[in-house]
Specification:
The complex is a heterodimer of chains A (about 350) and B (about 500).
Chain A: H1 3-30, H2 35-48, H3 50-75, H4 83-100, H5 105-134, H6 138-160, E1 162-163, E2 166-169, H7 189-206, H8 208-218, H9 220-225, H10 230-257, H11 268-278, H12 283-307, H13 312-333, H14 335-342
Antiparallel strand pairs in A: 1-2
Helix pairs in contact in A: 1-2, 1-13, 2-3, 2-12, 3-7, 3-10, 3-11, 3-12, 4-5, 4-6, 4-10, 4-11, 5-6, 5-10, 7-8, 7-12, 11-12, 11-13, 12-13
Chain B: H1 2-5, E1 9-20, E2 23-34, E3 38-42, H2 49-56, E4 64-69, E5 72-74, H3 79-84, E6 87-90, H4 102-107, H5 120-134, H6 149-162, E7 167-171, H7 179-194, E8 198-203, H8 206-212, E9 215-220, E10 223-229, H9 235-243, E11 261-270, E12 279-287, E13 290-295, H10 302-309, E14 317-322, E15 325-326, H11 332-337, E16 340-343, H12 347-351, H13 358-362, E17 373-374, E18 379-380, H14 382-395, H15 412-424, E19 430-434, H16 442-457, E20 461-465, H17 469-475, E21 478-483, E22 486-492, H18 498-505
Parallel strand pairs in B: 3-8, 3-9, 6-7, 7-8, 13-20, 13-21, 16-19, 19-20
Antiparallel strand pairs in B: 1-2, 1-4, 4-5, 9-10, 11-12, 11-14, 14-15, 17-18, 21-22
Chain lengths: ~350, ~500
């Protein structure tokens, strides 16, 4: 990694977070509460004790999966916005297997995970095929497939797997529920997410395949002229990113939610896209960013209970972080900015 | 003073200089247009034609120099102002709103309406009169999407006339037209001329230029070479003026290879009817130990020839042999496996992955090699890659602050050296080099020529494509001339007959 780029990639998000928190503090003060107090409870709620830490990990798990999904696809220049749909397909398949198949326990878990990944991968592959064969824009297709997946889930929890009179599916049996991770509220889905992140990191930066995939993402023409099978890499990035999201969906169902219900998984796909961008498409940084956002979400409840500052303040901070980071990244890429600031600061390679 | 010279002079650009940073796109260009003439601007890509016209049309402000319209010194700060001064421009890529009808497109931006309503009938009558007067036949009520390219062009011309232009700039107007449409355009141009309108015609197609022009101004490397009356000019004269007179003596020893043939094109055609982007019945063979130079004005099929010889496109007709076996699959990777090296035309677009490091670009094709990874690419040996990159940096004199620097931040010459190192390190059997020194300084150019000659001497067959005639003469052992997708002739690289080659480049 180049020194100056690395600098910008770290400095921009950190500055964005600081500015976002400052603005958050102003809002909190305007609400008549003490910003220091509110932030203290925000921190406490997210990391203050082992229970809260577990909750933060648990909340971060699906976000890590969708963030990795976006990282992987975007590295190959594929704008997969369908993380959410792929996530849902994974959870729907897991729900079927967990509740309808004779298997229980570890074999069921493994099968659910496998089916979830396969389902997510296939769901994304549909968009990949349309892009490669017909030149369709993958952003549109993947977003459309999100709606299809959401509505499909609707049919599942209102009809096919409905639990009596309530519009939700029957619950995953206790034996098939994912075991807890180190006795925390998080399940083993959390370490699995981190392992997947490490695997993505290794693949992208330490294998020839990942190297070529990144080259395709950065300059498709040069990749083609230099003999890479561009279509194969594009297809692969659809399938693998979809599989990561699908696996995330399956594990979220087995570990945390246990049933499909209205609103399950909503927003995770786009959250993942934003977090991947903040992390500059770096998988390990993506994990950190996902945990950070989960912490803001978890901690805000404690903040609200203790200080009366509404959780929406946390939402505002999250949104500001995204806005500032994306804008900041774009700004440092401007030639004028580079000339004026980076050179003077001696950061230019 | 400018005014006195010719009373009928409608436009004069004097000593125009336009600088972008340290690069001169135009340097001290003087150019004038008389009423009722077709004045051609002729020059290679990058000679500065478009920049000059953008200055005229108010899209760029000149760094220095003045513009006079009808003897009055003017400062043109926007296209709207240019239009007001009677200058109309038909861009190479049309500026039409596709979903609107022809009529709507023409009156778009019309500022003559007094109120908020448009008097459609009066406007329509006016446009119809113009279209009849100049033979600009087009259905006013059709949406632009339904028109052929030629008709869209007529709409553009009509639009310019409707706004009252006296000087019409046509930027490469024939590039997208069929032969029949070109004839139609020429008729229109003749009518416009006979009605006293002036046309600035931008082109690099000599045949057309000779047919329609009254005067020709030739630009080369941002400067005016000469302005000439068409008189008894021939294509050969034009070619010579366009590419410049060369030093004839090469500093390299020319080879006369008797070694085996490494690549053969046998009556190959690709998009045969496209004169400027196709190949028409091309037969070439390249031996080991020789450099075959392809001379010709840019855009006569050279790019397609290079893409074909590197597996990036497949021929429509004819066949290719590589190292004595017929090529079945045209795929870049298959050619790379056959040890074909490629220095592509556009180093940023297709040569390098600019956002990757110099080291990454050096090993771009060979990451699966045992030297650079274990388990067929499963684990990259980053240290080995780095030390290889340092070795290449030394050997090919790549000047960069570090091999971890992004390739896009290197100068053009050093970028090209990265590509050379990557392509030549494996001692290719066949090297396809396209414009390898375009935009480079003398030092880098010399280094690249030396390196390519060295490859020839260790037995590579080299095909060199260049729009720089000097370069072709300098290093080629055999010279082929391309014109409109065809091979016009073959000449020895030793004491090449410059005049004959110039003729061939003009299609004679």
């Amino acid at each position: 990694m180049k020194r100056k780029d690395f600098g910008a990639l770290i400095i921009v998000p950190v500055l964005s977070i600081i500015i976002s928190f400052l603005i958050g503090c102003i809002i909190i003060a305007a609400l008549g509460a003490s910003p220091a107090e509110a932030l203290r409870y925000l921190w406490k709620g997210a990391f203050g004790n082992i229970r809260n830490l577990g909750t933060t990990f648990s909340r971060s798990t699906p976000l890590i999966f969708t963030t990795l999904c976006a990282c992987f696809a975007y590295r190959c220049g594929v704008f997969n916005l369908g993380g959410e749909g792929q996530f849902l397909i994974g959870s729907i398949l897991a729900c079927y297997i967990a509740t309808k198949s004779p298997l229980t326990g570890v074999p069921a878990m493994l099968l659910c995970a496998l089916a979830g990944a396969a389902g997510g991968g296939l769901w994304a592959a549909a968009a990949g095929l349309l892009k490669i064969w017909r030149g369709q824009n993958e952003m549109i297709i993947t977003i459309m497939l999100n709606y299809v997946a959401t509505l499909l889930m609707g049919v599942v929890y209102t009809n096919w797997l409905r639990d009596g009179s309530v519009p939700q599916t029957i619950a995953v049996p206790d034996e098939t529920k994912l075991p807890s991770f180190l006795g925390l509220r998080a399940t083993i889905a959390f370490p699995v997410a981190i392992l997947v992140g490490i695997a993505v990191f290794y693949f992208l930066f330490s294998t020839s395949g990942g190297f070529q995939l990144r080259a395709v993402g950065l300059n498709m023409t040069a990749a083609k002229v230099n003999g890479f099978n561009v279509k194969r890499y594009i297809m692969m990035s659809f399938i693998v990113s979809g599989a990561i999201a699908g696996l995330g969906g399956a594990l979220e169902l087995l570990g945390t939610q246990l049933r499909l219900i209205n609103g399950f998984g909503a927003g995770y796909g786009f959250d993942g896209v934003a977090m991947a961008l903040i992390a500059s498409l770096h998988p390990i940084a993506g994990i950190v960013v996902a945990i950070f956002f989960a912490a803001l979400r978890v901690g805000s409840t404690t903040m609200q209970t203790a200080t009366g500052v509404p959780t929406s303040v946390s939402d505002i901070i999250q949104a500001l972080v995204i806005v500032f980071t994306v804008a900041g990244m774009a700004m440092v890429k401007l030639p004028e900015f580079k000339n004026r600031f980076l050179r003077k600061a001696g950061m230019e390679g | 003073m400018a005014v006195d010279k010719a009373a009928d002079q409608i436009l004069r650009m004097e000593h125009i200089t336009k600088q972008f940073g340290s690069v001169y796109a135009n340097r001290n260009i003087t150019f004038d247009v008389r009423a009722g003439e077709v004045h051609t601007l002729l020059g290679e890509n990058g000679a500065g034609k478009s920049t000059l016209m953008n200055v005229l049309f108010g899209l760029y402000q000149p760094t220095a120099g003045d513009i006079y319209v009808r003897g009055q010194k003017v400062k043109i700060e926007s296209p709207a102002q240019a239009v007001k001064l009677g200058i109309g421009m038909v861009h190479q890529h049309f500026m039409l709103v596709e979903a609107m009808t022809v009529f709507e497109n023409i009156i778009l931006g019309d500022t003559r309406s007094a109120g908020i309503f448009i008097d459609r009938n009066a406007r329509r009558k006016e446009i119809l009169e113009l279209s009849q007067k100049y033979g600009l036949d087009v259905d006013l009520d059709l949406p632009v999407t339904e028109l052929a390219v030629g008709a869209q062009q007529r709409v553009e011309i009509l639009k310019a006339l409707y706004r009252g232009c006296d000087v019409l700039v046509l930027d490469e107007p024939t590039a997208a037209l069929t032969d029949v449409e070109v004839e139609g355009l020429f008729e229109i141009m003749n009518k416009l001329r006979s009605e006293g309108k002036s046309i600035i015609f931008i082109s690099h197609k000599m045949r057309e230029v000779l047919r329609v022009s009254d005067r020709i101004t030739i630009l080369r490397a941002g400067e005016t070479v000469v302005t000439v009356d068409i008189g008894e000019l021939t294509g050969e004269d034009l070619a010579t003026m366009m590419i410049g007179r060369q030093l004839v003596r090469s500093q390299y020893t020319k080879a006369e290879s008797k070694e085996e043939i490494v690549a053969v094109l046998d009556h190959v055609s690709y998009h045969k009817n496209s004169k400027h982007n196709g190949l028409n019945d091309v037969s070439v063979n390249i031996r080991r130990g020789e450099i075959v130079g392809i001379a010709g004005v840019d855009g006569n099929g050279q790019s397609q020839l290079a893409m074909l010889l590197t597996g990036n496109i497949a021929p429509d007709e004819g066949s290719m042999e590589l190292k004595n076996s017929k090529v079945a699959v045209f795929d870049p990777n298959a050619f790379i496996q056959e040890n074909v090296a490629h220095i592509p035309e556009d180093r940023n677009k297709s040569g390098l992955v600019g956002n990757m490091s110099v080291a990454d670009n050096l090993v771009l094709k060979i990451t699966k090699d045992k030297r650079f990874s274990d388990g067929n690419g499963f684990h990259l040996k980053k240290k080995a890659i780095r030390s290889y990159a340092l070795e290449m940096k030394e050997k090919y004199d790549i000047r960069c602050s570090s091999v971890d620097q992004e390739a896009r931040n290197l100068s053009g010459g050093n970028q090209q050296k990265v590509i050379l190192a990557r392509e030549l390190e494996a001692a290719p059997d066949l090297l396809i080099a396209v414009h390898p020194t375009r935009g480079l300084d003398i030092g880098a150019t010399r280094f690249i020529h030396d390196t390519v000659i060295a490859q020839r001497d260790i037995g590579a067959g080299v095909l060199l494509i260049s729009a720089d005639f000097d370069e072709i003469l300098e290093v080629s052992d055999r010279i082929l001339v391309m014109f409109e997708g065809k091979i016009m002739g073959e000449y020895s690289g030793k004491n090449p007959p410059i005049d004959e080659i110039s003729l061939a480049m003009a299609g004679k």
